[in-house]
Amino acid sequence: MDLSAFSDEKFDVKQWVGQVFEAPEMKENPEGHAATVVMKLQLFIQEVNNSLDETSHQVLQSLPRLVRDVEAVRAEAARLREQMSVAKADIVKVEQETAQSMRTLTRLDTVKSRMERTCQALKEADNWTTLSADVEEVLESGSLQQMADKVAALQQSLDVLGHVSDYEERRQTLEEHRNRLEATASPHLVAAITDNDTARSLVLVEVFRQMARLPQLEKYYVRCQRAELQRRWSAQLEARQEEGVLEWLTAFSETLVDTWHTQTRWLEQVMPHLSPASTLCCVLADTLASLQPSVASCLDTATKEHSDPLQLLEECKRVTDRLVTTLLQAADATAGSSGSVPAASALVEAAYAPYVTQLQRYGRYQEQLLVPTIKALVPSGADLQERVDAVGSSVSKLMTLLHSALDRCLSFTYGYCLPQLLDAFQCAFETELSNVNATAKQLESQPSAGSDWTVFHASLRLLQAIGDLMTQTSRLEERVLSVLSQPPGGVPAHLSAARLLPAGDQSRYQQLVDRVAEGDSLVLLEPCHRLLDSTNEEVQKVAFRAMFAPIRSQLKAVETVDWEGRGGAGASLSADLPDFSYTPQEYITQVGQYLMTLPQHEPSVTALTRVRSLRQVGQYLMTLPQHLEPFMTQHDPTLGRALQSGVMPYSSSVSGGRSESESSVVHYIISCLSEGACQVYADTIVRIQHISAGMTRQLVADIDYLGNVLDDLGLRLAESLHALSTLLRCPAAEYGRVIAAAGQPPLPPRLVAAVRQMRGLVSES
Q1: Helix, strand, or coil (residue 290)
Q2: Fewer Cβ close by (within 10 Å): the C or N end of the chain?
Q3: Dihedral sign, CA of 628, 632, 638, 643?
Q4: Could you tell me the residue range of the domain that residue 316 belongs to?
């Protein structure tokens, strides 16, 4: 039976009894199980009583012994209190009896110390006089060690005579002796450092220590090592005259690393008071900044002669990167952390200083590489077909060049020269677009006829090239924005924009990064987009004129028709003939044929039936599918991209928007051509001076034919032509009534007056 529940502070009798009576034995024999539990509890109670009795008995037996122990402790405490009182009284007594004696001893010790200092001062005063008399003889003898000993003794005497009235005069005298000693010792020190003579250097270091000029040692050391490294640089350039700056830098970097390791050990042995890492950083920084000829001038000369200046600069910078990384790691190993070596920063700046001027010209170097390459993409002496094909293929080549230039900028300058690279991109686009403009001028100078599709195809391919260039430019801009929105990658810890760029370029780069970080709607290639848009607009005009040339040439025939009907074919036409007697004239059927063949692979049955009865239909219908099929089946959105961004002539009257789908592109081109045909046709008609009644009906038939062709194309006749057809169709007697009944919008007054004049109608008051 578990009795632990009885020791719980929250023991509940009812709960415990309930648990006991829930046992399985209770269900089988409740009375027997209850009797058993009661018996067990009685036995446990008896055991507890026995245990309590035994414990009580033991406690009673121990009480007398505990009482005796407590009494003994109390007696010991009383004796200790008495002894402490006696000791305190003795201490007070001693202090009272010896206080005067201690004060006397203290005064005597003070007097003794003062007497000793006075005696020493008198000795040093006498010693100063003696040393001052001897120092001149020692200085003339040239013995550096004796001179140092005398100067040290003078310093010791001067320290004691700090209270005398002529102290400042004595100090100046000592300083003069030090200067004379330093002037005598410095040539020996320079020679010892230059020769790496450890024994002589140790002696001279001790001399400088004795005359309190240890800080001057670092200056002499830096000067000597700088002169030695300059000598080795000059000897290297003389021995490697046939090699270039890259080889010079590589060899000199090895020299600097060797110097670091050998001089570190030498400094630790000879000048332990100096920090080898800090001192050597000063030496190398001073050396790199004062080389003659300088690294910057060598780079400047080499870049002017090199075909790819950026490649040369990249290779040289890799050599510098390895040098600086090696030296900083060595500084870490020597000093524990290069961050604790202030001169390490000066070393890094001196190493990369020659590249600051070169990176200031980064954009110019990039232009020198891009512009000639882009000019060569399109041959200047080629015929139209070759030039158009070259322009089309040059877009992908141009973008490959620009993306490669961006990759080079990221690896070489970590993106810090992106503003200058964007300037170079603008020059690249100007060069590419000059090729496009030259091709457009050549296209414009080509004769075009309805039966010759060369110019037509060339126009569309040129527009495709413009659209492709726009699309690729947007992708390039997105990549540049992505680069600027992220921290520069792969930048060594010791490098930053301040180490590679002049202040103006740093500010320009940071402003660009800040604008991108602020989420501005930034157009990085905005000048390039402006150039593209203006070129696209000009090319669209040229392309439209080329595509519209066959229509314009056919409409010129309107001016040669005998509209007065005085002779020729027009003389036989009578106003009494029915409408079906008038067939469209050749000039308008040519226009209709040209328009109907443009948008289709195969002409519709309706259009084919109407046009089949006209003249010279076969040539257009047989040749058109093979000419238009490449532009309809290649699923290339570039043509639509170009048309989206530009404004083709006569497009303002075209209803509906433009998209990059091939059906929308074709519909847009046909709509512009149709609108242009209608407007040119209307302008030509209003210039007719006089027209007979029969030719009036012929002209109406021509306009109706053009309207039917446009209807088959899903287009409408222009309002101007529709108004002319209405004015020409109405009888002379009803002319005024038709004009008055036109409603809104009214018929254009210009057209009303022109038709009135050509039909010879009397103006009504």
Answers
A1: helix
A2: C
A3: positive
A4: 213-360
First to last CA, the chain: 135
Residues 321 and 385 in one domain: no
What distance in Å separates the CA atoms of residue 236 and residue 229, rounded to the nearest whole number?
Answer: 10
- The reported pLDDT for the residue numbered 167 is 64
Say which residue, 215 or 566, is predicted with more confidence.
Answer: 215
What token pair was written down for 626?
A: 């093979």
The answer to whether the Cα torsion of 92, 93, 97, 101 is positive or negative is negative
Considering the domain architecture, whether residues 333 and 375 belong to the same structural domain is answered as no
| pLDDT of res. 407 | 94
Determine the Cα–Cα distance for residues 703 and 681; give it in Å rounded to an integer. 9
What count of residues does the chain have?
765
Distances (CA, A) of 397 to 191, 408, 450, 481, 540: 63, 16, 34, 22, 23
The number of folded domains in the chain is 3
146: confidence class by pLDDT, cuts 50, 70, 90: low
pLDDT by residue (tens digit) across 549-586?
777 777 777 777 777 765 544 444 444 444 444 556 66
Which residue, of 360, 378, 403, is where some domain finishes?
A: 360
For the chain, percent of residues with pLDDT exceeding 90: 21
Report the C-alpha dihedral over residues 164, 169, 171, 177, rounded to 10 degrees.
Answer: -140
CA-wise closest residue to 660 among 635, 686, 683: 635
Dihedral sign computed on CA atoms, order 752, 754, 759, 765 = positive
Looking at 360, 378, 407, the residue that finishes a domain is 360
Q: Distance between CA 174 and CA 210 in Å, rounded?
A: 13
pLDDT of amino acid 526? 85
DSSP secondary structure of 456-507: HHHHHHHHHHHHHHHHHHHHHHHHHHHHHTSPPSS--TT--HHHHS-HHHHH
| 78 inside domain | no
Indicate whether 477 pLDDT > 60: yes
- Do the Cβ atoms of 759 and 691 come closer than 8 Å? yes
Is 25 inside any structural domain? no
**Residue 365 pLDDT:** 95
* pTM, 2 dp: 0.68
SS3 255: helix
User: Are 759 and 731 contacting, i.e. CB atoms less than 8 angstroms apart?
Assistant: no
Structure tokens at 353: 């200083």
Q: Give Rg (Cα) of the chain.
A: 55
Q: pLDDT for 329-358, tens place per residue? A: 888 887 655 455 677 889 999 999 999 999
What is the C-alpha to C-alpha distance for residues 594 and 558, in angstroms, rounded to an integer?
Answer: 17
Quick one: how far is CA 746 from the chain centroid? 61
Higher pLDDT, 629 or 529: 529
| Residue 697 and residue 618 share a domain | yes
Asked if residue 594 and residue 519 are part of one domain, the reply reads no
- Are residues 277 and 247 part of one domain? yes
pLDDT tens-digit readout, 317-327: 999 999 999 99
**Cα–Cα distance between 621 and 628 in angstroms, integer?**
11
What pLDDT, on a 0 to 100 scale, did the predictor assign at position 380?
80
Asked whether residue 108 is domain-assigned, the answer is no
Is residue 128, in this structure, part of any structural domain at all? no
In a shared domain, residues 376 and 294: no
Tokens read off for 350: 């001196």
